[in-house]
Amino acid sequence: MDCDSDAPMNAGGRGERPLSEDDHPQRAELARAEQADLDLNGDRLREECGVFGIYNHPEAAAITAIGLHALQHRGQEAAGIVSYDGKRFHSERRLGLVGDAFSDASVIERLPGDMAVGHVRYSTTGETLLRNVQPLFAELDAGGFAVGHNGNLTNGLTLRKQLVRDGAITQSTTDTEAILHLVARSKKPRFIDRFTDALRALEGAYSLVALTNKKLIGARDPLGIRPLVLGMLDGSPILASETCALDIIGARHVRDVENGEVIVIDEDGLQSFKPFPEMAPRPCIFEYIYFARPDSVVGGLSVYQVRKKMGRVLAEESPANADVIVPVPDSGVPAAIGFSQASGIPYELGIIRNHYVGRTFIQPTQSIRDQGVRMKHSANRSVVEGRSIVLVDDSLVRGTTSVKIVQMMRDAGAREVHFRIASPPITHPDYYGIDTPDRDKLLAATHDLEGMRRYIGADSLAFLSVDGVYRAMGHEGRDPVKPQFTDHCFTGDYPTPLTDRAGAVGQQQLSLLAEAS
Fold this sequence. Notes:
The structure is a single chain. With 517 residues, the protein is an alpha+beta fold. The strands form six sheets. The protein has a seven-stranded antiparallel β-sheet with strand order 4-3-5-2-11-10-12. A six-stranded antiparallel β-sheet has the order 6-7-8-9-13-14. Strand 13 and strand 14 form a beta hairpin. 53% of the residues are buried.
């Protein structure tokens, strides 16, 4: 049943007993198969990229690497830096984490110059390929040009096919490469005009940092869907996806790059261009719910404080009679604190995360898994046993991880397990830089509230309402005529054309770093 049913989406369906295997065979089978090694990141939305750039700093590459480290949460598959030393460009692009790729001094030494741009990425589908690692670089008639992109072009596949049909030779499978070709093909005389000429062909979401032999450039799409901020470090301008990348290097946050704005930084200072008709901003609401680091400030709002307020509003909308509030680490922590403060129910760490389990740790055999070994997360039995608990998380996607969390709490002796989600039900996929499943894989798109509750096995389940999200962010509610945020995952209201999706039969929307067919 689709969640457009008459079932209210913010009311809990109270069960009188834990569900048995006969109640939902699929859920029980999943819990048995995977409850041993609980990875709470296994069913998360993925932000695909983070960008960073700095101008006129003698240690530009090193500063960029540190900034990328602060943005690591935005992409863990690969990282890259391009620098310029006054004569030539230098590029280092690596698979893996920033700390693994750029901790060696010899790597930074191969990136000389006082200008640099960097990028971290998360691969949505297909292989993680070195040729897709950004910043991408090309030699144009005006000189070298490097670009890093956070977001997703909803006409990326259409542009790519047109460019290839016209003779372009592509080297990657990213939509970002279209920007290089569009800049190269523009007939405008000045580079900045060629750059903005290319932007006019783009649809969807983009925050860009770009580097030429003279300029550092930043740009946001006309709606400002993905974030970009301007900072200053001892007179050196910086562009970054989030303020946490400024904080880590002791830089000052000057302001957000505005929606539809292009910033050009060169030896003459900083210039701002507005090449698009003025539009009301619609930043992505998921930056506040999940993607941005809690210590970042996005659009003038503290992400941490917003998430706590979402928890408070959730407690007001969907209270629970329970003994203890338990956050789902780590993303559910701020909302759980807010829920606890509003409800007066004590907050406790009922799930403990092992921070020392990396990807290279020994993989247990199936026989060891069958013994119930949980390497990544485990229940804190002293908090859970014999109690009625409220689990608070930031979002619910497929529901597979929630099944395992609920079962783990029951195995630890919880008397009741209530689940509260500090965002509305996710009913529609994203095409602007978030890796979401197809709609038929989204639990809220295929089940009503009671069906979701039964699937995950909770005694009750409730979501924050759409208006509740907006109230937590300082608005009276959602303006249906002019929505204040990009919130299509909850509402189906996509703010831009989905050209690729509306194209030829069988054509798929190009995902940011997907393998192109």
